[in-house]
Amino acid sequence: MIKPDRFVRQTSLSGFGLEKQAKLADSKVLIVGLGGLGLPVGQYLNAMGVGTLGLVDQDFVELHNLQRQVLYSEDDIGKLKLEVTSQKLKAQNSQTLLKCFDTYLTKDNALEIVKEFDVIVDATDNFAARYVINDACVILNKPFVYGALHAFEGQVSVFNYEDGPTYRCLFPKMPSPEETPNCATNGILGILPGIIGTLQALETVKIITGVGEVLSGKLLVYDGLLQNTRKVSFTVVPENKVITKLQTDYGFDLCESSPSISAKDFLALQQRKKLQVIDVRSIEEFNKDHLSGSVNITFEELKSSLQKINFDKDVYLLCQSGKRSERAYAILISLKPEAIVYSVSGGLNQMASVCP
Amino acid sequence: MIKPDRFVRQTSLSGFGLEKQAKLADSKVLIVGLGGLGLPVGQYLNAMGVGTLGLVDQDFVELHNLQRQVLYSEDDIGKLKLEVTSQKLKAQNSQTLLKCFDTYLTKDNALEIVKEFDVIVDATDNFAARYVINDACVILNKPFVYGALHAFEGQVSVFNYEDGPTYRCLFPKMPSPEETPNCATNGILGILPGIIGTLQALETVKIITGVGEVLSGKLLVYDGLLQNTRKVSFTVVPENKVITKLQTDYGFDLCESSPSISAKDFLALQQRKKLQVIDVRSIEEFNKDHLSGSVNITFEELKSSLQKINFDKDVYLLCQSGKRSERAYAILISLKPEAIVYSVSGGLNQMASVCP
Amino acid sequence: MTILLFGVTKDIVGSPSLSIPTASVTGRSIPKTVRELRSFLNKSYPELGKLSSLAIAVNNSYAQDDEQINSYDEIALIPPVSGG
Amino acid sequence: MTILLFGVTKDIVGSPSLSIPTASVTGRSIPKTVRELRSFLNKSYPELGKLSSLAIAVNNSYAQDDEQINSYDEIALIPPVSGG
């Protein structure tokens, strides 16, 4: 039951009204990525009354996110973005059904996750995820709302909307990591994701409700420096509308994830030189089994034990599965921004499978 | 001291860098209005590192605000917007100096408040405030960033920037309340203030840092339905650059304030018919002196005493100064959206001056 | 001549644009300046005449009342809006 | 012929636009199709040639490689961007 007063500014809006409001309430929108783009999309769709919001992210809040990811507070640093976002969206609108996916969207889970939703919002920060989303949406016949940033610029479009063109009709091949700088090496003006994310939210509402004209077959190119907007039209390349399965490999270039080192590379490196390895598991776990030469500082005591770490040397954080070490990374790098810190991805579990 | 890591995405941005970041830190921005436009402006400027943010608002959070005023949660209903906003902005960035003005901007306080700041953001919802801001900014020689909404449309411009034109060069005369519907009777699509507010934040950053081209002498007209942006150029009308004092009257048409009734009208009405008057002051205050026929339900016990109120009849809320009754209004209307509720503005204090 | 409508002018006319005949088939005079256009609009839609500040843009420039207009110009009615 | 640059192409060239001579004063051939333009750009800026997906818009429409271009066209280089 929607309280009539809550959405009165929309239900009294000529051209919107109760009918469109009901469509919002019935809709299911998936937001992939809870960073600069995903947060305004989530906040506004949640405010406006979208019935079901899916949230996908496995990243932790870091200090340098706060410059543009405005839902996060200083207290949230080191917490899972998914947890913080779902908690704040719940407080904002308790009527929304939130579906949380504590993972990144990958070729292995994309079809399973995407199929539950009516509209997908691409709020990711890397090409691999964008091409996975495109292909999954084409396979499952879902429209997706694209937004992406570069410095003072942004792009918005709606791909695969009804018979409209896809991301690959515009950009057929995924760029290699070398040819295009990723967001970690290139800056973003903090307000840009706010502008592009809100435009994505509007296109999502237009798809759901049918008001206005959906930005399909048009790429909106926004230049914040000159406050210029241009719309480039493009058409379907028929072969791109026929995708039957995801590729076996999309590469990997998550920008916002912590500098992590694979278990394999870590072991290889360790053979060549003595590394400063901090094991952030509990004392019990550590005592049962640990890597020779590693030092145990539990995740809980990390903040108060900085003096035990030599920040003039590289720091390698280790745990059982790679989750706590990633979180520990976020905390350390916030407190010691100049330090060089790695999280060993997959942790001891992964190491066991690498090194039998 | 700015932690280097916090703004790394801006300081590493070619064309921005440490120099522009320092300009943000040194700047003082006044945000007039903490509604749909003011909140994204505040969130992003606070995130990006503006050193001093002034906040002006005297309104309370109501349920129907939540559809577009995304900083507010359901728990905030009935609280002062200024308190909620300053608290959340503080948590988001503890380094920002927040200057709170618990008032509406009026002809009586505008010059005093505006003079402290470098850039003024007009995030109000009514013509009276917009013309007051324009005139105060012309008198004090401050640029102001204008944003305004109508249904699916928005307007953005920077007025009085250096030798550039003012609001009156575009719209010379203030519309009368009759000729243009106000926001309470006309709807707003929830995402629109997000789009327009983020554009205002960007223009503010451009004024402060000098990056890009400030939207001066150009009115950006945004149509969300068609995702069209047009820029209309206009020039200075010299007489509008010369304002020496504020007008004696700008009218009054605050959209977001509660349906309130003036003490005078209330007294006149009460002579003609028996009104249901709820006095929300404390028992002590009530016992000392009260309006004959009024019923005392203290503000604190209001939520749990709904059964004492007859919602089939109009409800008139009364307190000493009009502040608690306005807050009580927000609570009642959230719980009983169909009820007809008035807050007697100025309360018993005002009544005393009306009726000697 | 097509006129694009914004803000309350769209609500008054009830559509996002408005066509004005460019040849006088009816014997009525055709607006040749912004002033004549204002007067033409006020006759057709008296509510438009009540707007105390209504900017008229010709080819994306604010136009003074004595500016000439012709059928090739892109004309827009832009009133102030107040929502926030 | 002026070419507007977006995304990483702006960074590669180091400016928001690029001028290409439209008359062959140097004896070098002038690009007359999008394909020739691509080849011209790749010679001048080898980094542009490395972009696997670079959309070229002519008068705000995505242009195929065999589309003809001339000096009156508004041309824009639009690469995919990835930030979020």
TrEMBL record, chains A, B:
| Presence of keyword Transferase | yes
Q: What InterPro entries does UniProt report for this protein, alphabetically?
A: Rhodanese-like_dom, Rhodanese-like_dom_sf, ThiF/MoeB/HesA, ThiF_NAD_FAD-bd, Ubiquitin-activating_enz
Q: Domain of life here? A: Bacteria
Q: Which Gene3D superfamilies match?
A: NAD(P)-binding Rossmann-like Domain, Rhodanese-like domain
> What's a Gene Ontology MF term here?
nucleotidyltransferase activity
Q: Which CDD domains match?
A: RHOD, ThiF_MoeB_HesA_family
| Keywords assigned by UniProt, alphabetized | Nucleotidyltransferase, Transferase
Q: Write the protein's name.
A: ThiF family adenylyltransferase
Q: Which organism is it from?
A: Croceitalea marina
UniProtKB/TrEMBL annotation, chains C, D:
Q: Does the keyword Nucleotide-binding apply?
A: yes
Q: Which InterPro entries match?
A: Beta-grasp_dom_sf, MOCS2A, Mopterin_synth/thiamin_S_b, ThiS/MoaD-like
Quote any Pfam family the record assigns: ThiS
Q: Which UniProt keywords apply?
A: Nucleotide-binding
Family statement drawn from the similarity comment of this UniProt entry? Belongs to the MoaD family.
Recorded protein name is Molybdopterin synthase sulfur carrier subunit
